[in-house]
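User: Design a sequence. Structure:
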């Protein structure tokens, strides 16, 4: 992607761009940021272990723990996160970032 950077650095750059583009209306307190960062880091470690084959045992442990970690992360984000975007009317169902004409569905 970018010359002179590793695959992990490219992944972090893409993740940061994604977060800036798609989460502009969501804010999280410090309590929710920690699980998101921790679970993302564990996912990167798991992917690295699988791709390199360094330690299948640790990769297996991380695979076993991953559902619990994701549930913990989702709980913390729902509990402590807040949505700062526009509220929907009764007849709206989503896509507050797009105009009706852009959806090509109506």
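Assistant: Done.
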């Amino acid at each position: 992607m970018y010359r002179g950077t590793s695959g992990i650095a490219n992944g972090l750059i893409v993740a940061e761009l994604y977060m800036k583009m798609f989460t502009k209306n969501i804010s999280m307190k410090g309590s929710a940021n920690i699980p998101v960062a921790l679970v993302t880091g564990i996912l990167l470690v798991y992917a690295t272990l699988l791709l390199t084959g360094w330690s299948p045992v640790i990769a297996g442990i991380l695979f076993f723990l991953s559902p619990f970690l994701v549930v913990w992360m989702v709980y913390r984000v729902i509990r402590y996160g807040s949505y700062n975007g526009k509220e929907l009317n009764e007849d709206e169902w989503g896509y507050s970032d797009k105009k009706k004409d852009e959806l090509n569905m109506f």
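The chain has a mean pLDDT of 76. The longest helix spans residues 56-80.
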